[in-house]
Amino acid sequence: MDDSNESKKPPLRRSQAWFGKQDRDGFMHRSWIKNQGYPHDLLDGRPVIGICNTWSELTPCNGHFRELAEFVKRGVYEAGGFPLEFPVMSLGETQLRPTAMLFRNLASMDVEESIRGNPIDGVVLLMGCDKTTPALLMGAASCDLPTIGLSGGPMLNGKFRGRDIGSGTGVWQMSEMVRAGEMTMEEFTQAESCMHRSKGSCMTMGTASTMASMVEALGLSLPENAAIPAADTRRNRLAQLTGRRIVEMVKEDLRMSKILTREAFENAIRTNAAIGGSTNAVIHLLALAGRIGVPLTLQDWDRLGSEVPCLVDLQPSGRFLMEDFFYAGGLPAVMREIQHLLHLQALTVNGRTLGENIASAPCWNREVIRPYTEPFKPAAGIAVLRGNLAPDGAVIKPSAASPHLLRHRGRAVVFENIEDFRARIDDESLDVDETCVLVLKNCGPRGYPGMAEVGNMPLPPKLLRRGITDMVRISDARMSGTAYGTVVLHTSPEAAAGGPLALVRDGDMIELDVPARRLHLEVSDEELARRRADWQPPEPPKRGWYKLYVEHVQQAHLGADLDFLVGGSGAGIPRESH
Length: 578
Ligand code: FES
Ligand code: MG
Prior knowledge:
iron-sulfur; alpha/beta; Rossmann fold; metal ion binding; iron; Glucose Oxidase, domain 1; ILV_EDD_C; 6-stranded mixed sheet; 4-stranded parallel sheet; iron-sulfur cluster binding
């Protein structure tokens, strides 16, 4: 072999370990893929781009993703790449039981192995509904190929009887109105068709929009990814540009780990505070950091984010919706406002720094996106609470809470699980008033299982009728990003893992002090030890994914990933299949 000639060859692409082989295996890899009509020269060593698609009719928020993928393909072809779209498990927040979160890690395994096992040089992740974003990010991070994120975009504003109604947030509000006798079921049913009237994901700053914003803040998408509505043709243009860019990223070998640095995560945490983002982002970013090998702790959320003001007046904390947010300038405008708090040199997928991307980002509406000096809410980031009720931490979103309840001492009204809660909360004789603290157990990662979004427990109807709209609520559950209230979440360790939450009884006094970051159960250590001796762990699931999950899921403060999925295995080429 002529060595001098060998050294002039371009580096072999990963996909060429399949398509470039001059033997029986190469025949098989090429010949079968040609049954879709691809010309031979598409297999000549150009970047092969996997388009990882979470399309499903059972995930309505991602129902337009086959169309979106076609725009990505345009861009890939234009830039000289070869796009191949593939499906992965799709997680729809509104249909999937017992909770989509139970399957986030399962979907991430699907993503990881689909990428690694196939002839792919770079990846476009099509993400939308809540859990589809972290699942794809986590799986791709464990492979660490050049990867770019593309979110599906939010729905247009909900419109009901002349006013805007927001995904989720409007449901929580109107269902309480029905329970309080202020709205008829007929009106409630009419609102269903009015709330979700276009393609896209929830148009409040719920988990989907939060995670789309996190993708952009981390530098993993092109600018403006967070807010362009799904129905706006500029979303398709972004998809096409994303397709063009991933081909370049493969040529530059711009891998995920070059983007997902500690600085990128710090930028995301601060941005989450500035947008009043979902508490779910805490869990997802901790898990993602674990996959890419960046040290990140629950405490980092409080330390980096809690003093950052919320600048956007968006539901669930405020008035407006994602469509308004986009027209006002979207995430680049917010990040520009907090640029003094960001690592501006952080590299993003377009090859430019974050600082370059946001340097001249305009704001068109100061009602929707406030200036840093006149924030919508001061010190609005996630607060991390500790105390004998949450030795490993619990979280609260002060921007969604009632100021008068942020320091509160009250009598516990305890529910053993969500069925117990639903059976008793509407009972007029339930011994509860607005000073009480509602405590819900067994809704954590292992307990539910999957850590359901039930932490924003509905209030007793007799209090709603008296005009009470908020109470302190504590659980090991999560809360929908579209929800609000003085709700303490993610209590760790959870009840089902024997955390102190399991030991709370009716009548115990609980002290919440958010400014002091304290969550205290006023019961002596001796009494808690006596109660612990009586405690029985729940029966574990017997088979299948539930069993694997419950045996291996980590607690919320670690991101609720499976213990054996933390870290990555790279994108090494597996051995031949035949
Ligand atoms: Fe899918 Fe909200 S339910 S994004
Ligand atoms: Mg949700």
